[in-house]
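Lab meeting prep.
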Amino acid sequence: MVKRKQLLGILGVCFAIGGGIVWIFHEYLISASLWGIAGIIILRLNKYRSRSKRR
């Protein structure tokens, strides 16, 4: 089974790679939004990590 954190990480990587591919085709607004979603996912993963260290 894939854990929730791993699934979010994989999803974040997919959004980041998708943003890079879209950037090549000169669709800058779409690529910026995909990278923004990837950034939000990374921040969420960092929040999970800080919660687990506090316990």
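Slide two material, second protein:
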Amino acid sequence: MKRLFVILIVLSVFADVYAKRDYSEEKGLIAVSDSTKVEISVMKGDILVTPTSRDSIFFYCIKSAGDGLSADDVSVEVDTTHSNIVRISCSWKNPDDDYRGDIEVLLPLRIFLSRVFTTSGKINIDGVKGECSVECFEGDINIKRFDGSLDIFNMHGNINVADSRMIRKIENLEGNITADLRGESSDSVFIKTAGGKISLRISGASNASIFMETKNGKVTVSDYFSDRTVSENECVKRVTLNAGKSRIEVRNIEGDIELKPLN
């Protein structure tokens, strides 16, 4: 009976918190040409980007505001004034106020994604293409099946990249990095975190020279690459695959680095 009473109190608190928030939604279609590039930015909130068979971009935003504020003060703007560029943004007048805009964007398969940014929130990108910079100050970044080049920046949160190509740069201030190095790499790839674990998978057929160093941790290389690995010590290792055409530099300050084969 006592446990049930505690659960009811907790549920009551959560209900009270959410009841104080004001919600509204906004959605729309954006007509685009084949060469259009898309930029998405949110002052605070989650971003989801997926493909669609539509001819137009579709966006859907859930806007919310804290106690005493109105969700109608959250503005979703679509800027098409620049040639072949569509900018979708969600913002409000005072960045410190308790507003939020969670947005989902569906991109036609012929459209290119060029930038995704949020100060605080999750970023999920799946099955689209482009030459994209993905940026977040606080929150996890998850990217799957991205067809094109990627530059990824995070300050506090994990980064996960799977079944994508081609990674050019991944930088994280505090958080884990997990990435597949699939297909032909850029001439130069840079991956770094200051605090967290870096886990990489790469195909043995890749043409790359991989340099891995951690200041306070351990570099572990799968036995699959044992005949192509040079170890200076447990903190520094080099792996050369085939002619070593691409240079992949992996650095960690406080954490381990792990390299495994990609099936």
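Talking points for slide two:
Residues 8-17 have pLDDT under 50 and may be disordered.
Helices lie at 2-19.
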